[in-house]
Specification:
This protein is of the alpha+beta class. Helix content is 40%, strand content 21%.
Length: 252
């Protein structure tokens, strides 16, 4: 079984990876911030959520290519930058930093097992500043591109793809009207699957958060994102929902 002791070992390795990523980004003055479960852990636990075994960074779209380039050059030799340039079957919309000294399995996301590198990973999401009234269009376009990548690599059936494509094209057609008259209010739009966003003053200025024995940058008003994602985020979920990301991790 994947025990709490093993989860803690994974957390310690993830923390070392995150520190290395942070050091490189800060060296090159590339802004980043922690998000999702990592941010929730910082706010509620001053570190990892006890059962959480992944780590989430966000990078701003305008810095994303530079961040990927410098990380690919400067990451330690026991880490691997995984994206469409380094993984032939890549279908995600964001890069990962993979640990080369572990092998992880994940029953929740079996398609991830098709990639060549199976180590535990840090997510490098990206976020784009857009007019608030174009958010739904942006998400639909990003989701359609994601579904096309899955179809290309055989990770979705033709039937399922056609259904999703039809739904997304309808949204895109409906929302293109809004795009012709963009609103003055702007937001930072996040992952394609969730209804989450940050308004500019909720994100900036970034501030430091205690996380285990170090600090990471995070949003100015974390409760905005956390409440949208998790509701009453300071309340622990029921025990049956306190599940790690991975099913098993073996260190080499």
């Amino acid at each position: 079984m994947y025990t709490q002791i093993e989860v803690r070992k994974v957390q310690q390795r993830l923390l070392a990876m995150a520190k290395a990523i942070k050091e490189i980004l800060e060296k090159h003055n590339i802004p980043y911030f922690i998000t999702y479960g990592t941010l929730l852990g910082a706010v509620r636990h001053k570190g990892f959520i006890p059962w959480d075994d992944d780590f989430d960074f966000y990078l701003l779209d305008e810095y994303y290519k530079e961040a990927i380039d410098v990380l690919r050059r400067e990451l330690p030799h026991d880490m691997f930058l995984e994206n469409e340039d380094s993984e032939p079957l890549f279908f995600h919309g964001w890069a990962h930093v993979k640990d080369l000294n572990s092998v992880a399995s994940c029953d929740l996301y079996p398609q991830d097992g098709q990639y060549a590198h199976h180590g535990i990973s840090v997510d490098l999401y990206h976020t784009k500043r857009i007019p608030a009234n174009t958010e739904r269009l942006y998400r639909a376009e990003e989701n359609l591109a994601y579904q096309k990548r899955k179809l290309k690599h055989g990770f979705i059936s033709d039937v399922d793809y056609k259904q999703k494509e039809s739904e997304l094209l309808q949204i895109i057609a409906e929302e293109q009207v809004n795009a012709e008259n963009p609103s003055d209010e702007e937001i930072y739009a996040f992952k394609i699957f969730y209804d989450d966003r940050l308004f500019v003053d909720e994100l900036f200025p970034l501030k430091q958060y205690q996380f285990e024995d170090t600090t990471f940058l995070g949003p100015n008003k974390p409760e905005a994102l956390l409440s949208r994602c998790y509701g009453d985020f300071m309340k622990l979920p029921p025990e049956e929902k306190r599940k790690p990301h991975y099913s098993d991790v073996i260190f080499k």
